[in-house]
């Protein structure tokens, strides 16, 4: 996964200076081909294991099992290559992006304890201390959703979105763009533009609780026909993941110093330069629900 991520996005110098393509500058093509063969072998192994039910009973209700049953009923529509492509797409586009966002959200929460407290109070009042939250509860938690929006605004997992190529001549923001041009959108800068946002560099989920549709200004998932098809799933995963972490544990910084929010060098996704370290302790709900565990 790391190898793929490091070689994806606008990282190939040959895309910017075509003469470099002739010499396979930095052995990029050879490297990508080798990564492709490795990941294909891995995915084929997964598929074969599922087909022969070596994955055990746990995999009976898995996404792969469902895709394989579709392969049986519609073999022409679901050859192995298509199934491997779907699995690869979900792993590549869906896992790193979501985990990077969780880390940015938690980093901002421990740096802003008053926001953390407000989110916890919302969880306690809406879900209570007798039940663990479930995915359907996310819709009852507007402040938690505002925290996710504010994290997507300040730290879009893919700050330059995905590279696009203009299929024809077009005009963008008054600029003439010839066909065949590589286009990158700096969502990071747009979402911190002081002309669009008040106090743009502060972490303030409250801005999404006010009148108006601030969410419409978020472009962390892209917009239009090629926007992220996993945005709905990502919101649910982030809501359930973050909400559960706040419901079950009490979080604080390891010392008085604020958590460093510097960004690391990324491929398509950009995570923190230093992994987040925090302190946590179980909340009373955990003792109630899992009395034997503590
Ligand atoms: C917080 C999590 C996520 C973020 C921030 C994110 C962001 C993005 C962005 C910026 C793009 C490119 C949009 C563009 O080209 O303008 C994209 C594309 C895509 N995303 Fe996501 N994504 C997330 C989660 C997911 C998940 C969970 C899935 C699926 C399981 C997914 C599947 C895809 C796919 C397949 C594309 C390519 C769409 C296309 O090229 O037509 N993403 N995503």
Automatic annotation (TrEMBL):
Presence of keyword Transmembrane: yes
Places the protein is found: Membrane
GO MF: heme binding; iron ion binding; monooxygenase activity; oxidoreductase activity, acting on paired donors, with incorporation or reduction of molecular oxygen
Protein keywords: Heme, Iron, Membrane, Metal-binding, Monooxygenase, Oxidoreductase, Transmembrane, Transmembrane helix
Residues that, per the record, bind heme: 228
Superkingdom classification of source: Eukaryota
Family annotation (InterPro entries): Cyt_P450, Cyt_P450_CS, Cyt_P450_E_grp-I, Cyt_P450_sf, Plant_Cytochrome_P450_Monoox
PROSITE patterns membership: CYTOCHROME_P450 (PS00086)
Similarity comment: Belongs to the cytochrome P450 family.
Protein name (record): Uncharacterized protein
Organism: Tripterygium wilfordii
């Amino acid at each position: 996964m790391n190898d793929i991520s490091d070689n994806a996005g606008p990282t190939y110098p040959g895309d910017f200076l075509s003469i470099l393509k002739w010499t396979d500058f930095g052995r990029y093509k050879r490297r990508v081909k080798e990564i492709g063969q490795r990941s294909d072998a891995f995915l084929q192994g997964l598929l074969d294991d599922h087909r022969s039910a070596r994955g055990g009973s746990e995999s009976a209700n898995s996404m792969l099992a469902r895709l394989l049953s579709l392969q049986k009923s519609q073999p022409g529509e679901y050859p192995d290559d298509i199934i491997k492509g779907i699995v690869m797409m979900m792993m590549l586009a869906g896992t790193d992006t979501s985990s990077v966002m969780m880390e940015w959200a938690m980093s901002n929460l421990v740096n802003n304890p008053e926001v953390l407290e407000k989110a916890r109070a919302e969880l306690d009042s809406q879900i209570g201390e007798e039940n663990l939250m479930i995915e359907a509860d996310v819709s009852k938690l507007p402040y938690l959703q505002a925290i996710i929006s504010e994290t997507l605004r300040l730290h879009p997992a893919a700050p330059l979105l995905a590279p696009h190529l203009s299929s024809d001549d077009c005009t963008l923001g008054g600029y003439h763009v010839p066909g065949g041009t590589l286009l990158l959108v700096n969502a990071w800068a747009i979402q911190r533009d002081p002309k669009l946002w008040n106090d743009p560099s502060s972490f303030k989920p409250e801005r999404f609780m006010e009148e108006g549709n601030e969410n419409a200004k978020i472009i962390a998932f892209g917009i239009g026909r090629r926007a992220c098809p996993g945005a709905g799933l990502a919101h649910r995963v982030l809501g359930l993941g973050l909400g559960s972490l706040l419901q079950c544990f009490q979080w604080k910084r390891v010392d008085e110093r604020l958590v460093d929010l510097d960004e690391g060098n990324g491929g398509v996704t950009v995570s923190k330069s230093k992994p987040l370290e925090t302190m946590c302790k179980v909340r009373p709900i955990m003792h109630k629900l899992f009395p034997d565990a503590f």
